[in-house]
Amino acid sequence: MSTAQQATSQQVQSSAQPRVSRLRLGYWAGWFSVRAALLLIVVIWTLPTFGLFISSLRDKDALALSGWWTALTPTMTTGQARIGAAETQQQVDGRYVVAGRIFPEGEDFQLHSFGGGLAGGDFTSFQPGEVVELENGQRFTVSVDGVYELSSPEPLTYDRPPRFLYAATIPVQLGLHNYSEVIRAQGVGNAFLNSFTVTIPATVIPIAIAAFAAYAFAWMAFPGRRLLFYIVVALMVVPLQMSLIPLLRIYSGLGVVGTYPGIWLAHTGFGLPLAIFLLRAYIGGLPRELIESALVDGASHFQIFMRLVLPLSVPALASFAIFQFLWVWNDMLVALVFLGQRQDVTVLTVQLAALVGSRGENWEILTAAAFVSMIVPLIVFFALQRYFVRGLLAGSIKGG
């Protein structure tokens, strides 16, 4: 290689190196940006659920004083308390003593400071266990566990018990007591079972009917097939609220209002258009040679459906099962209209709505109840998620 060629090669290599470095830098910058964006999306979506779960484990006092992000640190609270009535005084070692406790029994509160009222100053003036000298030889003290004592050399006389201020720390308290109260005391346990009674048949029935209809629309030739399919698709855009009153009048005439078969049929009718649309796209995308060879071998349409189409359609069936299960489980409108609020048939969403209306101030109960209602849909979704994307995308490229 001549000197000129070597110089040209070196120039090409030297000019290519910065370009390669820029390409590598761009690759790593894109790699980092994509993963950072995904991490941010995951955090934004999961943070409220995590906060709801932590709140459901806290007690009422801690939840009212601080946010869930402080659940792992002690909470500071302030308050006031009154000493016992003068009639409760006892004579101890020649002094008249009124004693008591400012914290509820069984609580692990710890006194941080006290003062104000009969002790003077403010709630930060004195430390736990410090003896405050009052007029007429009286003494007042409060221990770290909230036990107070007012002593006097003379009998204590007052019409209204004096008060004092205090600051205390509430220790970290996480437990399942809120869930126990929700399930046992609020009737959510029975509503939980009722929701299963409504949701499982209301998911299985439309899947079974829609699978047969989808096969017929995809592989069976009959007059008006295309028109009927267009009508089914058009029903997907009909608002649910438009059909509630007419359907309720029909149910009243048949006497099925407030019964499980009535709401099963309602959810089946509302879910069938989407089910048929999804399953028809999937079943229509199955290989034509497979269906035609089965017909040549003498198989009937029912045999083809049961032995070939149904096993191959598991991803699409699972996809719609997720949609239908989540919709029925989280539904309150249809359940309220067709089942009502009788305790023997009320579902979880209706019971939670009643819980919010009657005890809206008890946040710890509401958070626990909300998480109870969320856990089942999450289990269903994660159990069937491997079929979810496959079922939705199948049939989108090749139509039947």
Q: What do you see in this structure?
A:
This protein is α+β, with helices and mostly antiparallel strands and 400 residues long. The chain folds into three domains: 17-72, no CATH class; 75-171, no CATH class; 178-393, MetI-like (MetI-like fold), CATH 1.10.3720. The chain contains 13 helices and eight strands. It has helices at residues 3-56, 60-65, 177-185, 188-219, 225-235, 240-254, 260-284, 288-296, 301-312, 314-330, 333-338, 348-358, 363-393; strands at residues 75-82, 90-92, 95-101, 110-115, 132-133, 139-142, 147-152, 163-170. The strands form two sheets. The protein has a five-stranded antiparallel beta sheet, with no helix packed on it. A three-stranded antiparallel beta sheet has the order 1-8-4. A hairpin with a 2-residue loop joins strand 2 and strand 3. Helix 1 (3-56) packs across helix 13. The radius of gyration is 35 Å and the shape is elongated. The chain starts with a helix and ends in a 7-residue tail after the last helix. The model is unreliable at 395-400 (pLDDT under 50).
What's the arrangement of strands in the largest beta sheet? 2-3-7-6-5
The parts where pLDDT drops under 50 for at least 5 residues are 395-400
**What structural class do you assign from the helix and strand content?**
alpha+beta
Biggest sheet layout: 5 strands, antiparallel
Quote the distance from N terminus to C terminus.
64 Å
**CATH homologous superfamily designation of the largest domain:** MetI-like
Using the CA coordinates, give the radius of gyration. Answer: 35 Å
Number of folding domains? 3
| Portion in beta strands | 5-15%
Task: Give the beta-strand count.
Answer: 8
Q: Helix segment count?
A: 13
Summarize the amount of helix as a percent range. Answer: 55-70%
Order of helices and strands: HHEEEEEEEEHHHHHHHHHHH
Shape: elongated
- CATH fold-type name of the largest domain: MetI-like fold
